[in-house]
Each structure stands twice: as structure tokens, then as C-alpha cells.
TrEMBL record:
Protein name as catalogued: Urease accessory protein UreE
Upper classification of the organism: Bacteria, Pseudomonadati, Pseudomonadota, Gammaproteobacteria, Oceanospirillales
Annotated function: Involved in urease metallocenter assembly. Binds nickel. Probably functions as a nickel donor during metallocenter assembly.
Name of the coding gene: ureE
Location of the protein in the cell: Cytoplasm
Keyword presence, Chaperone: yes
Residue ranges of the region described as Disordered: 135-169
A Gene Ontology molecular function term of the record: unfolded protein binding
């Protein structure tokens, strides 16, 4: 088993010998026995707390690097007018202490979360239109949990082939 013991922050695809695709609920764990996308047995022995981010590298005891990928999973994307309505939606959903992804595309700004009927009802009460679909879920890390303690940023584009980037300032 390849023991992954250190978080490296974002790494280029070319820097990794393998990839590990996980849904959000498994990317929040520091300890996990799993298989890489290449079929290798992996053990995660990481600090608890920070979410594994899509594109993050994990270093093994051997020095090898495995790159984390966010899995495609069921999500709800809530869309509402930009400005105050979008800020209000993000505030009220975030006030429920749930993980949220925020983004922007050609249709405007959005808030994304795992399916949850209570959150969906709240979003609709605030005027949002909901889209139930499958996509990656890579929520905001929070101001105090930025990878490497610095500025993280992404590119706000959503593609049908399940490859997404999100701004996180």
C-alpha cells in the first residue's frame, strides 16, 4: 500500500504519478484506505481538518505524488440575480453552516451544494432557480483554511465534460 502522508497544495498533472478521484464526503477525511484511479492501494495518513482540494498533490513516504480529483456527484446549483440577491442567497445558505461552492459562468453567479430539501426550499424562497445535475463539488475553503495559507484562485468555467474551476478569494 502506498502511504500518502503530506499535503503539497496544487500540483500540475505532470508532477503526479497517479490520481485519486473522490467525492466530497471522502475528501473531508484525513484517514482513508482506498484505490487510486490507476488501481493502486492507497492509505491516507493526513492531518485532519482541511478538505482535499481538486488538483492538490499528496506526497507518499516513497516521494511519489498522487493528485486529487473531485468526483462528479449529484449537486444543486442555485441561480439568482447578481448583486444583493446573490449575496443574500450565499449569506442565508452559509448561515446554515453547510459547505457551499460559489462560481460564475456565462449565465451569471451561482451557489452550489449537495442535494438537501431544506436548503433547496430556502433557496427557492430567496428567489433562486434550482438546477439538479451532476458536477464536481469543490466548496469554498473559508478565509482561514486556504491551501498554503495564501491566495487561492480559479477560473470560473464550467464544462459539460465535468471539469470545473471555481474562484476562492
Amino acid at each position: 500500500m502506498l502511504k500518502l502522508i503530506e499535503r503539497l497544495g496544487p500540483v500540475a498533472e505532470s508532477a503526479a504519478s497517479d490520481t485519486l478521484t473522490l467525492p466530497f464526503e471522502l475528501r473531508i477525511r484525513g484517514r482513508l484506505k482506498t484505490k487510486s484511479d490507476g488501481g493502486r492501494e492507497l492509505g491516507l495518513f493526513l492531518d485532519r481538518g482541511p478538505v482535499l482540494r481538486s488538483g492538490e498533490g499528496l506526497k507518499a513516504e516513497s516521494g511519489e505524488v498522487v493528485r486529487v480529483c473531485a468526483a462528479v456527484e449529484p449537486v444543486v446549483t442555485a441561480r439568482v440575480s447578481t448583486g444583493l440577491p446573490l449575496a443574500r442567497l450565499a449569506y442565508h445558505l452559509g448561515n446554515r453552516h453547510v459547505q457551499l461552492a460559489l462560481g460564475e459562468d456565462e449565465k451569471g453567479g451561482w451557489v452550489r451544494f449537495p442535494p438537501d430539501h431544506v436548503l433547496e426550499e430556502l433557496a427557492e424562497l430567496l428567489g433562486a432557480e434550482l438546477e439538479h445535475h451532476n458536477a464536481t463539488f469543490d466548496p469554498e475553503p473559508g478565509a482561514y483554511n486556504q491551501v498554503g495559507g495564501g491566495h487561492s484562485h480559479s477560473h470560473g468555467h464550467d464544462h459539460d465534460h465535468t471539469h470545473e474551476h471555481h474562484h476562492a478569494h
